[in-house]
Design a protein that fits this description.
The protein is mainly alpha-helical. The chain has one domain. The chain has ten helices and no strands. Helix 2 runs parallel beside helix 8 and helix 3 runs antiparallel to helix 5. It starts with a helix and ends with a helix.
């Protein structure tokens, strides 16, 4: 086990080190003085340790747990019901999972904090997070419904792309910056929390229903991202 953990740590160091070295070289070339070298070293250690702990936690807990949940949906039973839980109830549950998982997405919090600072408080970080989370919830619902009812992906993605494009053109001129913000926020929702959870649930559900995971198990992350873009654009227009 310790050997496996050591290999994981070395893998993270190999991933992070090239980026850090490139940034350090650029820093030395353009502005060689370091205001807080000790802080940089401590920050690098914290980044490596934090990535290791987080990724290992996702691997050991979130992914297998979400996969088990996805598999259990196909034969879900409740003690007070004689029949199984309907697909509609499962779709609503998955929407709730999408909403809650987005609220804890670290990349989204970093981006909204940057937006608040850049706008000197004009943009509300909580509003942006909730708007994106609602979109992810709707995308989760659509993605799970696509698996249950075997809906063609084209029939779902194409109209959503058109809606997003129309909302971009409807954005008032004074809020035009929200178009770029909406796409950035949507990208931030597909971070280290949502991606493993969404993918594991979709693949587990598809497999338990006897469907081809390649055919219906993928696309859920894209749907949540696209719907988050639409929800932020729509909320900004309102």
């Amino acid at each position: 086990m310790w050997k496996m953990f050591l290999n994981d740590v070395l893998g993270i160091i190999k991933t992070v080190l090239p980026l850090v070295l490139v940034l350090l070289v650029l820093k030395v070339l353009f502005r060689p003085n370091f205001a807080n070298a000790r802080g940089l070293g401590l920050g690098l250690f914290c980044a490596v340790a934090g990535l290791f702990l987080f990724l290992k936690g996702v691997e050991l807990c979130l992914v297998p747990l979400a996969n088990d949940v996805g598999e259990s949906f196909s034969y879900a039973r409740l003690p007070f019901l004689k029949t199984g839980v309907s697909p509609l109830v499962i779709i609503v549950i998955c929407a709730g999972i999408g909403f809650v998982s987005t609220l804890v997405e670290p990349a989204l919090h970093v981006l909204t904090k940057s937006a608040e600072e850049a706008s000197t408080g004009t943009l509300n970080g909580k509003f942006l997070i909730n708007a994106a989370a609602l979109g992810v919830a709707f995308g989760m619902a659509l993605g799970v419904a696509r698996i249950f009812y075997k809906l063609p992906a084209t029939y779902i993605f194409a109209p959503l792309l058109v809606i997003a494009l129309v909302l971009c053109f409807l954005m008032p001129a004074k809020k035009e910056f929200m178009v770029g913000m909406a796409f950035d926020l949507a990208g931030a929702t597909t971070g280290p929390v949502n991606i493993p959870i969404n993918s594991a649930i979709a693949l587990g559900l598809a497999g338990s229903l006897g469907l081809d995971p390649l055919a219906v198990g993928f696309g859920l992350v894209g749907l949540t991202c696209l719907c988050a873009t639409i929800s932020v654009l729509f909320a900004s227009i309102l």
